[in-house]
Write a structure and sequence with these properties.
4 helices; alpha+beta; globular; 5-stranded mixed sheet; 117 residues
């Protein structure tokens, strides 16, 4: 399956979670935790972020809330790449920043808060 098809499928799977993720992003920003919320999506356990959706038992995506600062402190983003990350980071009122972990590794994706479908 092509990357574009995979992302469209993921967007469809996440439709029911956009409100939860959006509320979590707003809280992270409003409470001055970070200006850069990141949601980690995974199907096998990870040790980053705070759990917000646990679907491990049924094989669907689980989701943890994290931040750029945590990614830096855990050395997932190096100091040299922070400014570049901030430049490509899309406005969190319009997009959700996802870090998707699967068998191919980890990739960032910006999911529109409103559905294009």
């Amino acid at each position: 399956m092509e990357q574009e098809q995979i992302m469209k499928q993921l967007e469809l799977e996440l439709q029911n979670y956009k409100a939860i993720l959006g509320n979590a992003a707003d809280t992270i920003i409003d409470e001055d935790v970070s200006k850069y919320p990141i949601f980690v999506l995974f199907k096998t356990p990870v040790e980053i972020g705070i759990p917000i959706v646990d679907n491990l038992e049924n094989g669907k995506w689980s989701m943890n809330a994290s931040t750029l600062e945590e990614f830096y402190s855990r050395q997932l983003i190096s100091a040299e790449h922070i400014e570049n990350f901030k430049k490509i980071y899309k406005h969190p009122k319009h997009y959700l920043c996802l870090f998707i972990i699967n068998e191919l590794g980890g990739n960032f994706y910006f999911l529109p808060r409103t559905s294009p479908y």
